[in-house]
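**User:** Hello, beginner here. Are you able to go through the protein record under this note? It all follows right here:
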Amino acid sequence: MSAVDSLLITSGERFDFVLNADQMASSFWIRFRGNMDWNSKNVFQTAILRYENSPDVEPDEIVTYESTSRNGTVLNPINHAPGDQKHVTVAELKALQEESEADWAREPDHKFFLAYDFNAVDNWLYHDPEHYPLFGVGIHQRFFTPQVNHISLRMPSSPPLSQHHALSVNSLCNQSTVANCKEKECACAYTLQVPLGSLVEVILIDEGMTFDATHPFNLHGYSFRVVAMERIGSNVTVDQIRAMDDSG
């Protein structure tokens, strides 16, 4: 558990927190401010936290975008590595509940390296290679494609679990079934197959070559445990991470 003064929530994230209500009974502003794309638009919202038996009135202060910024320690800051006393990263949080290591500490049955970045490819949705390729338009019209191992997500034609027989050719793929994906766009539902009951280690690598993006990863339908998290550098390659993994 960590005591902080504010927290930053990015896309898809959720937090449970305990509010330390130790002030004189009154009404207080709860302040929310937009970050990243919303900084320039000065987007903010407020709510009122009112102590029991306090007057049913708004707090005196007039809130502006600037006054929504709070000094002190921040949880989940953008692009900060552990070790800064004013910033607490998710990598530094620990679960309150103790768990046995017996079920996950052994060598995994399968290990997958999944590299993520926004890549410069003529993608099928935004950049037709003949009419408006990525580098044939102005810089503000360029859409760099979010990909895993240089493969874009294209939803399959049918649900893979219930109608696998109806899938179109090449609906499912992975790094071993497609080629030349750095030169042309590869798009499919990235699929990795493992036997039922396997222990799988997934190493997610934020390459960070194009720009600093802040977006969480989450996993549906499986029991998982985050066993390690670290910022290696401003950008990193899969080969670097493989070499670090091989050396222990």
